[in-house]
Amino acid sequence: MPRWVDAQKVTFKYGLGEEMIGILRTLHTLGLDSTEPVTVKGVQVSPRDVVAAVLPDPQTIGPRMEGRTCAGLWVTGTGKDGQPRRTYLYHVSDNADTMRDYDAQCVVWQTAVNPVVALELLANGSWSGVGVLGPEAFDAVPFLDLLAAPKPAGYGSPWGLEDR
Known about the structure:
The chain is of the alpha+beta class. Helix content is 36%, strand content 26%. The protein has helices spanning 18-29, 47-54, 58-61, 95-102, 106-123, 140-148, and strands at 7-15, 38-40, 43-45, 68-78, 84-94, 159-163. It has a four-stranded antiparallel sheet with strand order 1-4-5-6. Helix 5 packs across helix 6 (140-148). It starts with 6 loop residues before the first strand and ends with a strand. The mean pLDDT is 90.
């Protein structure tokens, strides 16, 4: 991203509920988030791989999930006016909405919708270029407009921007 955006620091943020944060803390406390192999009955396994192996299939947990996810980008640097700027761009997704509209849990949908929107912009000519270009190389406005536009013209998924 620094190739296209003049920023001192760009940090991806993902919001989780208290229950999930508690689960992750417990896994960490128990060392179950480690990638260092341990020997179990003569076999080397990573504790994190064991946890991943026993988790339910993501396709089956959507109907049991409740709540929202928030993915965001925290950017600090200098604004176009030359003054220091700190901006948070975020997108909230509700599991009830994504299950109803797309039969996909919100984490999966929120991950998948971004390349879908990008491909649509490439297909309709709003975005174009030559070579390997990430989404940050293109004008963000068409992307954000299409993401937030009401269905069926868009995806009905609003975003927010806060200067902090």
